[in-house]
Structures are given as C-alpha cells and as structure tokens.
C-alpha cells in the first residue's frame, strides 16, 4: 500500500470516527426517557395511576358510581382490587369490551397501568 493510500485510509477512519462521535449533538433536546416522578423509577398509584383513573374512569366508576358501573375506582385499594379480581388490565386492552366504554385509552396510558402491575402495584 502506498503512503498516499495509507494516508487516505487514516483520514477516512478519522472522518467516520468524528461523524459517529458527533451523533449525540442533536439540535433538539433529548426528551426525558422516564417522565415518572418516583425517584425509584417505578410506576406508582399516586404518581401515575390515580390521575389516569380520574381522567378516564371515575366519571362512571366514581364515588358513588354512575352509569351502571359496578364499582368505584377512586382509591388505591379499589383500583388494586379491580386489577386483581375484576380483570381491569384485560378490559383496558379489550377491543371487543373496552374500558372506558367509548374506546381505549392511549397506548402510553395502557402501558403505564401495565407497568404499575409489573412494578408491584406500589401506592407511593
Ligand atoms: C361511561 C362509563 C364508564 C367509564 C368511563 C368506564 N367504565 Fe368501566 N364499567 C362501566 C360499566 C357500565 C361496567 C359494567 C358493564 C361491563 O362490565 O361492561 C363497567 C365495568 C368495568 C370493569 C369490570 C367490572 C367487573 O367486575 O366485571 C372494569 C375492570 C372496569 N369497568 C374498569 C374501568 C376502567 C379502568 C376505566 C377507565 C380506564 C373505566 N372502567 C371507565 C362503565 C364505565
């Protein structure tokens, strides 16, 4: 290999290296990968689930219940009970029998509820 080719080779490696090491210099700020406020990084009832329930569920599953809903979803214990004994996870992902009644919540919200179960149904 001639000196010229060797030089080209090294400049090419240098160019590739400088490109790849710059790849994090994006103009847009990196979005927070975990919006969860819990310092342990886990999904909790008070941090995440309570607000989802009051936005999408308690209009019927309130206290008292309305529109024929069979139980309240206004406290930690009630929501845990619905997960364990009333197929809450299946219903929020069901296309044939969805909860809320009108149509499913966003994938993000459904994932959060699922992650809450996976993380151990933490209250705080
Ligand atoms: C518009 C009123 C309404 C909203 C909003 C609503 N539900 Fe319901 N829900 C009902 C009614 C009525 C039933 C009983 C009939 C049925 O099971 O489909 C029910 C049943 C359920 C059941 C089954 C209970 C059982 O023991 O069989 C679960 C679990 C449930 N809802 C969870 C939720 C969750 C979680 C949300 C919010 C993401 C939600 N629901 C939003 C009206 C509602």
From TrEMBL:
Stored PROSITE patterns: PROKAR_LIPOPROTEIN
Superkingdom assignment: Bacteria
Signal peptide stretch: 1-23
The keyword Signal is assigned to this record: yes
Region feature Disordered, mapped onto this chain: 22-45
Keywords noted in UniProt: Signal
Protein name in UniProt: Cytochrome c domain-containing protein
Source organism per UniProt: Litoribaculum gwangyangense
